[in-house]
Queue: 2 jobs
Job 1
Amino acid sequence: MESATELWIWRHLGLRLPPDWEMLQYSLKLDSGRCAFADRQGFRLEMTWRRVTGAPDFDRMLSDYLAKLADEGMEGGHRIEQCGFQGLKGVMDGQTITRFGRFAADASCIVELVLPWPDGRDKHLEQAILQSFHEVVADESGYSRWRALGMDVNVPVSLKLGSCRVEPAHVEWRFMDRHDHLALRFARRGMVKEWMDQSVQSWLERDVKPGRKPPPRWRHERIGGHAVDRVEGRTLPSGWLRRTRPLTSEAWICQEDGRLYSWVAEQTMVLPERPLKCCGGE
């Protein structure tokens, strides 16, 4: 399944899914939240998480859950086990649904995967998805990885995802520090040939608006086959104190998919060499 799947990483939880399954719903909350994926037929997977203080009593929890679902109209409900997950199978509103739970130790979360089967249960696909589930811990340098909605980023583990903007031909993530101040911004823009009538450097200058004191430092280089424009300097003065902030940003058009990728750091921090990736494997 691996060669024909897409890797998704959200909230330090990773899954491999069919390439035509898209994320339609997501949550920014770390303590409890939900992501939902769908294809042309409708919703295909729901992943929920809830932070707990320790490993739960799954036997008791699933027994209570089974009784609750039976009260809600599930028919033929029974316990199942697959790939280290404890779960339930039943029929709701004429459709087979399988539900699986697991304790994610590093995140200290109960993770539930719910799979509705509009055309009947596909055990091979179900097994492949469950086997692909894994926790994505910070690397040795203290960076955590997020991969979804066409972007693949590595950010300091101290930052949290504060907002996610998803629009046609535009995805933008904003990562915040512990004071909820903007630290990092990543973006991916499509349909570039239809709207972009200037150089990447000119676009980047308009996007980040670097201050003139001190003069911004520009650099143009090729990285991984891409022509990358980079600027380092300070932001324009803002607020009644007219303060400026450190500014570092890069932008380029991916030669493989033709989209414009950019990232902006508005705080002093040590970043990986390529905090945002556009292509070149997983």
Job 2
Amino acid sequence: MNVRKICWIGLPLLAALFSSCLNKQYTDIELSPYAHFVSLTFAANDSFPGLEDAVFTAEYDPHYDDTLIVNLDSLPYLTEVDSVYATFRFYSTSVCYLVQEKAGTPDRDTVLLVGSDTLDFTRSTWVYNRSSDGSSEAQYRIKVNVHQVDPDLYVWKQLNAGVTAYSEINQKTIAFGSQGTFLFFTGNDTETQVYTSTDQGVTWSAGVALNLPADNTSSLKLRYMTEYAGKLYVTDNAGNLYRSADGVTWETAYADADNPIYNLLFPLDGALWGIMRTSTGDYRLGSTTDGTAWVDRGALPQYWNDASRMFPIDDYAALVFKSRVGKPKMMVLGGLNRDGVRNRTTWLSENGYAWEPIDDGALQALQGAALLQYDDKLLLFGGMTSTGNIVPLLESANEGLSWAVPDSASNVLPEGYAARAYQSLILDEADKRFYLIGGRNSARTFSDVWSVKLNRMYFEE
């Protein structure tokens, strides 16, 4: 690093010297009696971007019961400060020096600040300055803050090893209500239960059987359960649509055997969207504003005649996210088409009507993935391939136009988290973290609860 290590003369003295030179007269100079700190700056270093941006101020620290020269905004992670060129400025100075402790010993070094050597700020350091007239001194402890954790590291924490010991493949967790209560649904052909957590997944109540209408005679499609207009909506295998205000007691919102609601997609612009099936076996997009009256929005989009690139009807991942211009954008990814063929196309739309198929060539045909928007990226968890293998984690920095494996140094699944598909994802925007709950792989089902937060999000709080 290259920075001058020097104590600057104060501004009043400089002005007097400059005036004397202009007049070419030798007059008495009134020296300043003030020795207090003005500024400390670091020189730029290409190896550590941002070093020169450090801002130091004099702050009282109750821990030391003293005034420190400190940068309140820490330098970036891994910034080295053992060889720094620094410039000190005081109101005036006649002599300025540093005192530094030697590591592991009670001894101290005294360094007169004149010349251009580098300073090691990993050592305990004090700066002493005497005013230009020698009448006063000021001393400060120096503290250089450097982030000790990687801001780009995703921190995983298991909150609960299992909501229930008997979770089914058919499951869904959703945050519901003004308090964000977590509801974990799991069911089979005979019964569906819901477990409740009011502390973001740490503890759970005992399971309660759902109270369903008499016309429900088949399994609920829990994976596609959606909150819309303050109520939960879910379909069953017969194409009936049910809604609930509390997750326990349900009523029939729609039942038409000739035009059933096959699956739900997402809420968008004051309407709930889904996939309808006609009496002739055709699949079409549909929407409703009240859950009861559905409007046909047209045929499912197709990508030529390639079966692996047709709009899916099952096992897809659907997400409404904010585009770079702040408008909502819809994504439907992976899943199975009407012939049971896995889809490898990412479908994007800005209005629900016109859809654009995206295929970057790297995304495998998969099903059972889960999508989330976090830290200006899209994250894809747990897609299952035709062989039962799991694509554990992918990310997209360009709104789904391409996908890549994240940097394993910062974003990687932790030990103890078994790769799985069909997990539920919950985003807590207020706390800037998200949760992964349950899921399954080819060997077992899960109901464990994990929280994830990017370190940088802690710094912003």
